[in-house]
Design brief:
Keywords: ATP-binding, Nucleotide-binding. One of its GO terms (molecular function) is ATP binding. With about 200 residues, the chain is α/β, with parallel strands linked by helices. The chain has a single domain, classed as Rossmann fold, CATH 3.40.50.300. The strands form three sheets. A five-stranded parallel beta sheet has the order 2-7-1-8-9, with helices on both faces. A two-stranded antiparallel sheet has the order 3-4. A two-stranded antiparallel ribbon has the order 5-6. A hairpin with a 2-residue loop joins β3 and β4. α4 packs across α5. The radius of gyration is 16 Å and the shape is globular. The protein starts with 5 loop residues before the first strand and ends in a 9-residue tail after the last helix.
Amino acid sequence: MEPRTESSYLAGPSGSGKSYVARQTGLPVLCLDDFYKNGDDPSLPRRDGQINWESPASWDAETAVEVITRLARHGRADVPVYAINEDRRVTTRPFELADSPLFVAEGIFAAEIVEECRVRGLLAGAYALRRPRGATFLRRLARDLAEQRKGPHVLLRRGVTLLRAEPAVLRRQTGLGAEAARAREILRQVAGLHRPGHPPTR
């Protein structure tokens, strides 16, 4: 069955504002963070004896692609709901596109599935959100503290680690096919994609 809709993929460093920018498009938004593996999954990568949640191997890319494929072909799918403070999926929820010709799949690992979705004919565009590193650090820390994702000391240490790693994260995402861009440029390009007669998939 040929896809009835396409998706744009929005990657970027943790805390860069991907969810906010995705919502600003006015399109249905699929949160790819809900596809993390459960904390007791034996395949989870480890670093210094701790689970490395920053590694793409901590994320279930195969299931994410299958859900995106169902959405593109049928306009609906059941998607997981992940509780980060519990490190596990706690339930599922229905996700429907209604008559939208496009939806946005956003998450730190979105770029990991760009090529597979391109091969399947599901890709409308792929972007990596670029912001000043200091702004990303503060946004991420404020979000994680407000949501009580982990203890404050853990979040601060994690934030410093991610601040240092941010350039490498963006290099990986652009290397996987995502275009580095500011929020305004992403919104402009996505708006162009869901107008009638938008350019062919890249």
